[in-house]
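hi!! sorry for the late reply, been swamped w classes. u asked for the two structures so here they r. pasted raw, havent cleaned anything up. first the sequence of the first protein and right below it the tokens
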Amino acid sequence: IVTAVDVPSNYCVVAEKDGKPMVGVSIKPSADIFAELLLQIEENASSPVFNHPCECGFMTCGADEAVLSAFLRLAELLDDPVKAPLLSPMIMREIHMRLLLGPQGQYLRGIFASHTRTTRVRRVIRHLQEHYDEPYSLAQLAEMAAMSPTNFQRCFREVTQVSPLQYQKRLRLVQAQRLMLAEGIDAASAGFRVGYKSSAQFSRDYARLFQVPPKRHIAQLRSAG
């Protein structure tokens, strides 16, 4: 999974019959490494490698053996404090290179090209993540992206699969869930902390997103460990 934007989401791990544990590994790509590699790849290619950058918010694709091997070697360095600082930069660079040359290459170019619509949407998303508890209108958010409200709404949905205001609502609900779990506060208090003015509206929105009322959901999450 490669993503350019932080979209609140849930996932479910389907356990194998043999009971083997599931291991997830993620890295935060370096814009500097991608920019350097993009330049080198295009300079050395006999024909254009990247034509039309993809400007969606995230994508999934199969990982080949080379990519999986690089991730495994990187993870194994966690147990080797001597080799880790020497080898991890080289492996990270290898991962960046293999991703650029893989099926997600066009997508990654769309992320790190400064002139794309995705970049402007990401700027608004970063602002919402830092100020999720503040009220915003569609016009205000569109102005941040230097786009018309109609165009911004369409581009935002293409990137995140939800509207700008739905995205902010999800941010609030996920943050409220974290507050209830971490601080033990009740649903009404959590709702007010993340910007809701009505505890009833907060409970309705929470149940709509998570399919269960907040109090019961938090109890289920705690009992599940």
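now the second protein. again sequence first, tokens right under
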Amino acid sequence: MAEKINQQVHPFAQVNKQPRSDEESGTVTSDQALKRKKRIKLAIYVAAFAVFQTIVILVFALTVMRVKTPKIRLGTDVTFQIFKTGTQASPSFDLSFTTQVGVKNSNFGSYKFDSTIATFMYEGVTVGQVTIPKGKAGLRSTKKVTVTVNVNSNALQSTTNLGSELGAGVLTLNSQAKLSGKVELMFVMKKKKSAEMNCTMTIEVKMVDRANQPVYPSVPADRQFRGSDENIEDSGPLLPDHVLRRKKRIKLAIYISAFVVFEIMIILVFALVVMKARTLKVMLGTNVTFQNFETGTQARPSFDLSFTAQVQVKNTNFGPYKFDSTNATFMYQGVTVGQVTIPKHTAGMRSTKKVTVTVNVNSNALPSTTKLGSELGAGVLTLNSHAKFKEKVVFVFLMKKKKSAEMNCTMTVDSSTKAVKSMIC
């Protein structure tokens, strides 16, 4: 049978072919440049993880550790104990009512404020004052302080619009107060924060006809407080201070625990994805060049082949895989027909190392009982290849983990066309 030396053989379409450009670039690029690229990749992954952690900490700092200004508002539930008003011709008023001042703290820490004075005014003139005692608004809660307010028109001048307002059946009062205190975060960090109250309350005089009557004042469109939104109304019986403090500490502990659990989940994902050592994949490449191709007949079966192929070590780990030299064995029906040494190399992280080898196989060791004759008569030759790699995957240049990889491939050659018909690994 006529033979052709240095014959290039191409596999059929069903075998996935590796791009030639990858092979050429892999040949041209030096080992030192490849190592540098892999280190750059690893540095990018580590930097990405560090940036992600920084973002998480930044979000924590901007949400949990950020100090927000508390809000102080006057409640909308008002109970009048005294309600005296004059007429349009002789305008005056003398009121005494009970209401709630709500200090809403939206921080993840308590807000301790000093006592202050709330001033009630009519057209800029002070008509009454009330003292708001010092207190403490727990984390993400509203402190409600009940106060009794006494206001009258004694300090008003005759030039005010009080008469016309009372003639229209309304009375408008403004209230101002400024709280000074500190927000305490994580029981350690303290930051000064002040809160101001500027509320306008319009009372319908006709609605109040006797003392001790609860009144819901009508509020103009430009009001500066919202009782229902700020949750100032009394929602139940007051709890002792030590119970409230315990509840707030439990809340804070829950938030901190949630953050710690979230961080643990991130580290766990990092460990399971980046730091997990995966088994490598070793396979025989599909591009085969035959230097020698000699086969016998069905009556006198034999073969003597010499070809060049690539052994591909695919490393999907986030670290290089350094393997020692090993032998790849080629067999026909379980009988060794050839061997080749695969030299030691390093497969970079998340890349494929391609090692070119020259293989010589022949049928000298085959017994006569094999099915070689029937196979050659059918125009095919089936060879099996096996190799085992043992070495370590290196993570972040420090941690090493042993991993073994095996190659088990079946190559079917068409003896008539001297081409690889199929490659299964």
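hope this helps!! also noticed smth abt the second:
The radius of gyration is 43 Å.
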